[in-house]
Amino acid sequence: MNLLAFDTSTETLSIAVEGGSTRVPLLHTAVGGARASLTLIPEIRRLLSHAGLQLAQLDAIVFGCGPGSFTGLRTACSVAQGLALGAGVPVLPVETLLAVAEEARASAGADRVVAVLDARMDEVYAGAYLHDGAQWRREGGFSLAVPEALAVPDGWAIAGNAFAVYGDRLPSGFPRIEAMPTASALLRLAPALLAAGQAVTAAQALPLYIRDKVAQTTEERAQARAARPAPP
Question: What domains can you pick out in the chain, each with its CATH number?
Answer without folding.
Answer: 3-96+181-204 (3.30.420.40), 97-178 (3.30.420.40)
